[in-house]
Amino acid sequence: MEKILFLAYTQDDGLLPKAALETLNAAIDLASKLQAPLSLGLIGDNVQAAADAIAGCGAQEFFAVEGPDFASSRYASDAAAAEALARRAGATLVLAPSVSRFARSLPGAALRLDGRIETHVCALDPGGDSLSIQRWYYRQRMIATLTRSQRPWFLLIDPGVFKPWEGQQGQATVDKVTVALPENARRTRFVGFEAPAADAQTIRPEAELLFVAGAGWTKKQADGQPHVKEAEKLIHDFITKAKASLGSSKSLVDQTCEGGEVISLLSHLNQVGQTGATPRHPKGLATCCHGEEPHTVGWRFINERRAVNLDGSCGWAIGKADVLYVADAFQVMAKVNELLGD
Amino acid sequence: MSTGFHIVVCGSLVPDPLQTLNPVQGANGPGLKNELMLPAVLDPFAAHSLYEAANLAKKMPGSKIWLVSLGNKAKLQQLMMTIAQKVAFELVPLDGPASGFTDSFEVAAALAAAIDKLANLDRSRLLLFGGCASASRDAGVTLQMVGERLGILDQFLAVDELKLQEDGSLRILERIEGGQYQVSACAGPPAVLAWATGNLPEPPNNPQIGMQNMRVIMPALQKAQPAPVAAPGVTFASVTLPAQQRQTRVVKDVPVEEIAKEIVAWIKE
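YS: structure for the whole thing
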């Protein structure tokens, strides 16, 4: 019989991130279908508030590795904590959200346990006796259904796939697991976070809409001149008014490195597609984007997609978008901004 | 006292991103149709890490770069014709499949074993570089497992910036959620840095570097050790292309005002 461990870390506010609650929901469902016991393993400075917040989830056991050494993200301490929790729980399946902290540390933890790991898991199918999972290969260009014989099997679940768990709070009894870090595990020190000022932040994972800007914004327009500053203002105004997240095609981002006139809002962090991110949002609006299949994987996980492009047969949109508006994006977005008001 | 870093870059080939990819089921599991015929490039994130390595080596005299690459020997040779002109390195080829369907656990074991055997590698100066995820398996786990096998406890994923501090420590920026960076300070090597894109453009071709590299690369390729990695324990039930094809409604010859109204109504739904 499988033994399932759900792993999560606490945020600065002491609670669990949304991605963790989504994975918790998946773990509860999986435990129910496999009729397997579910344990929870929490990592953080002090995890009691987080444990209490999910006390009603039906887990049989709550384990925790806590203390100042485990408050912030660091490979050595995170891998040691995850390893200790998996050992303590005797887990055969370890589910964790696919977030940077676990993406960095769980491969090492899996190796220490002679386990295996799958990341970017987007479906769990406990049909029959064995668990099958789905994940994408070749950067969202083909999807595989697979199973494994090795255990423990670590599974990093992509955010946005499952609904977050909602349920009763309570008072959880947490079994503390002691991890003694060797001195060389403290060679790395967490310094802090760097982020644009709140009003300059263009990446908003929780946004309803992803706005994808393509290279066409910086090309020569009908008057034979590029209008990059105008493009920048239109894009900035739109993502501010619509509270949208900003994505960009690779070519547009590359111009930042190549010294050409660029849209200053964009960095490699905004890049979506083959060598960028594949964010999940309910809606996506692509403008001035061009290219075929490899370029369009950036909006593979956008539910409703629309595009504005001058090319009516654009490979970015035909067969991939629900609606393609054949029009000048400069004119359309100026009008859209006007209609959205302040 | 020795100075500079010993930078080992792990990176292999992947199909050129512009190629059409089709999965096929072979006797040993899934693969790509005509895989050996597809034009290949150095894995994009690994390529960025190689350029960052070259930039770092230039700043730190006495540094050396190895490129450890697992892939079909003939394909690696083709790849080297372009990569070898950009950056000076010593190639450590492993002759095996570069398929995305091999297991990262096995790949990590092969890479770690090859690194372990490198002559003149000073582990106290080791920076293990590579991409944060391949364009084939796209799991983002291999480099951590290589580092773990080599006993390196300072690891960083999705790195965009590495700065050397005056005291010899490293200041590292890693991409995290929500368009932010995590800033960490590491006492120094050995460390694992799995790079995202970094901030450097692709170096121009330099035929002199190419000729210098190829003198070492060709004998290395001839002596490439076999590394028959697979995916034992994994059963692929299916590998398919996404079937969903949307019925795109094309709206043209419509006034801009009407298009804008429709978009705004859709956004507000």
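YS: worth flagging: The mean pLDDT of chain A is 92.
IM: good catch. Also Helices of chain A lie at 18-34, 48-53, 75-89, 100-112, 228-241, 250-258, 293-296, 329-340.
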